[in-house]
Amino acid sequence: MPAIPVPVIAIEDLMDRYEVLLLDAYGVLVTRDGPLPGAAALVDALNRRGRPWYLLTNGAARLPENAARRYQGFGLAIPAERIITSASLLVPHFRAEGLIGKRCAVLGPADSLRYVELAGGRPVPAGEDFEVLVVCDQSGFPFLDTLDAVISRLFARIDAGLPVPLILPNPDLVYPTGRGFGITSGCIALVIEAALRLRYPNRPDLAFVRLGKPHAAIFEEAARRAGGGDMVMIGDQLETDIRGAAAFGIDSALVAGGVADVGQAAEGGVRPTWLLASLNPG
Ligand SMILES: [Mg+2]
């Protein structure tokens, strides 16, 4: 039986239909190098609308205020309080898991370390003994040397029978760079998990806890901040934005031209509620 096509919707109809708009950042509003077409006009329209909207980003490399400054440099008037990052979920996670005060190896730039500090962790250099591993971002450290040091310390801790919580705020695998695609922290976690599986084949528990989309925590935070209202998630990735929205029980709109191919949208298990052909209002 042929798949039923996903209906196409215009951005202004989406804004009429839903009280709370949740937007992904990379592949929807920006690439690594700048804004995407229509992004500035959409942000202005959302700011004028006087209803809650949030940027739900798996990015864990910038504090909200620094992300806001960067978006503003791209001509996007996104206030810091509209930005919900996956790394901000470290605060409740550290509290719930009893990790406050623990020595943490943190992969990522300076803001990633700051997020861990804000959650109550104590960042230590990757070569030193650590009790918790937090993989936030693929940038900000010498890649191979750091991974080698982390793997060596991990093996030593596990061999000694010690626990080592593994946390992955941003489970994204790839993102659009503007010139093509780049790998993201989710790929680094897969590398570490592959090494762990090889050495400890009977320890399926040695896996990262994933905090960002498609997992529920970031949607729960958005719902909490919005204080109610029908929500729709606008994103470019089926596996994170669209799957996460569906699992959380809200509608979604897939943006054409991102990592997901629109042609794939109606196939496979993940299906957006809508296809959004353009961000440009009118
Ligand atoms: Mg994206």
Name the CATH architecture of the largest domain: 3-Layer(aba) Sandwich
Assigned CATH class of the largest domain: Alpha Beta
Q: Structurally, how many domains make up the residues?
A: 2
Structural class: alpha/beta
DSSP helix fraction: 25-40%
- Rg, rounded, reads 19 Å
* Small molecules (ligands, ions, cofactors) in the structure: magnesium ion
What is the string of helix and strand elements?
EHEHEHEHEHEEHEEEHEHEHEE
Number of helices: 9
Give the strand order, joined by hyphens, for the main sheet.
Answer: 1-14-13-12-2-3-4
Quaternary organization: single chain
Report the principal-axis shape. elongated
Average pLDDT, all residues: 92
Features of this protein?
5-stranded parallel β-sheet, 14 strands, 2 domains, 282 residues, binds magnesium ion, alpha/beta, Rossmann fold, 7-stranded parallel β-sheet, 35% helix, single chain
Protein architecture, described:
With 282 residues, this protein is of the alpha/beta class. It has two domains: 8-58 and 213-276, 3-Layer(aba) Sandwich (Rossmann fold); 88-210, HAD superfamily/HAD-like (Rossmann fold, 3-Layer(aba) Sandwich), CATH 3.40.50.1000. 35% of the residues lie in helices and 18% in strands. The chain is built from nine helices and 14 strands. It has helices at residues 11-17, 39-49, 64-73, 90-97, 110-118, 143-159, 185-199, 216-226, 238-248; strands spanning 8-9, 20-23, 53-57, 83-85, 103-107, 122-124, 132-135, 166-168, 174-176, 181-183, 209-210, 231-235, 251-255, 274-276. A seven-stranded parallel beta sheet has the order 1-14-13-12-2-3-4, sandwiched between helices. A five-stranded parallel beta sheet has the order 6-5-7-8-11. Helix 3 links the parallel strand 3 and strand 4. The radius of gyration is 19 Å and the shape is elongated. The structure holds magnesium ion (MG). Residues 24, 26-28, 235-237, 258 line the site of magnesium ion.
